[in-house]
Amino acid sequence: MNPSAISSQTLSQENEVIAMTQTIQEQAMINGGIIRPLVYFRHNIARVVGHLCFGPAFNNEAFIIGIDPLINDAISLSAFTRFSDAFPFFRSIPGLWGPYRQAFEICDRIVSMVQSEITHYQSSKSPCTTCYLHFLLSHGYPMETIIFILFETFLLTNDSTSFTIAWALAFLIRNPEIQLKLFKEVSGGDEKRERVTVDQVNKMPYLQAVVNEVLRMKPIAPLGIPHKTVKDTTLKGWKIDEGTAVMVNIYALHHDPKVWDHPEQFMLERFLNENAPMEKSLLPFGAGRRICVGRDLGKLQVGLTLANLINKFEWVATDGDGPDMTDAYTAILRMKEPLLAGIKLRTNLGTTLS
Ligand code: HEM
Fold first, then answer.
1. pLDDT tier at 163 (50, 70, 90 boundaries)?
2. Which residues are CB-contacts of 45 (< 8 A; sequence separation ≥ 6)?
3. Structure confidence at residue 308 as a pLDDT band (50, 70, 90)
4. 205-239 tens-digit pLDDT
């Protein structure tokens, strides 16, 4: 996940996003300009991560499509595992063994799917030597560890980026004036851009403000990822025993009225002035030693995708009120109602129904 590994992904990332906007356009055309875009975001990031893990030659659509329900099942189960971590005695109630059986079944499916991709890589005549799998194999980790590290990379990447993009579009549909300002920035003013590149994305302050405000309002891992204390310790006078699961309430930090004015409002101004309280109080990627390793890639993927989606289409509500902004809380802050949106293709002559 170092900067050079990420920048070597740039071209593939840009091409995948452009191919995805094309697919979204085609699918919306079949459906009268209406689209449920989440699945395309998920497949798109899975392809990018596939290149990172298995090398630029990775091109296995069956893997991309097959890993999606596995990620969904694993995330759905994670809510139960947190519950049983908090109340371990529930594990001995036979009626609650179902999720354990389900966990083993998911585990078998993960092993078989990832293992076959590893075998494919190993049987290649010239396997890539700059990908993550090469790194893991060359360090001699046990195969089981390699399989689950690879799966974890897909899992941690997929929901985080795809739901952040979906939340962002939902906010932009509900705030058309903000969407218009963003369009002006990503399209470069009067001149109509064919595509927005990674280089351009990094120089767009309004887009960055949109991404930051979405990550503030909808931190995708609202309680971070649980960690376990390695020794007895204290925190602000509280005694915490060794082996205790500790979670950080990122959602509460992002909605603290002592730090953020009107925390429930989508307000970009807070990130457009120099005194924005970002450094200390915006922690969508966690903090410290275990901070998200994919934060640069994740932020870039969200910004790049959003820029190209807004550059190409106007996003509109399918009914009067716009998308439902209610959260469906698992371990991940997903949308309760997956985004359904209307899109209009932007042309030099204005928008047309796509
Ligand atoms: C919008 C995008 C993303 C968000 C909001 C996000 C958020 C987070 C958060 C809150 C954590 C927990 C940090 C902690 O425990 O303090 C985390 C951990 C992690 N993330 Fe991300 N993430 C994103 C994208 C990605 C991407 C693209 C990757 C991989 C390429 C990734 C890989 C990881 C890994 C491996 C960890 C575990 C790190 C560890 O425990 O040492 N994430 N992420």
1. very high
2. 157, 158, 161, 162, 301
3. very high
4. 999 999 999 999 999 999 998 889 999 999 999 99
Residue 131 C-alpha to ligand 1 middle, in angstroms?
19
Q: How far is the CA of 294 from the centre of ligand 1 (A)?
A: 6
Per-domain residue ranges for the chain? 3-348
| pLDDT greater than 90 at residue 2 | no
Distance of alpha carbon 252 from alpha carbon 343, whole angstroms: 34
Residue with CA at minimum distance from ligand 1 atom 39:
290
Q: Which of 100, 191, 197, 115 is nearest to 150 (CA)?
A: 115
C-beta atoms surrounding 194 within 10 Å: 9
So what CATH class is 3-348? mainly alpha
Select from 154, 276, 256 the least CA-distant residue to 208.
Answer: 276
Tell whether ligand 1 has an atom less than 6 A from the beta carbon of residue 212. Answer: no
Output the CA 160–ligand 1 centroid distance in Å: 8
Mutation probe of ligand 1 site: the residue of 132, 285, 297, 302 with most atoms within 8 A of C-beta: 285
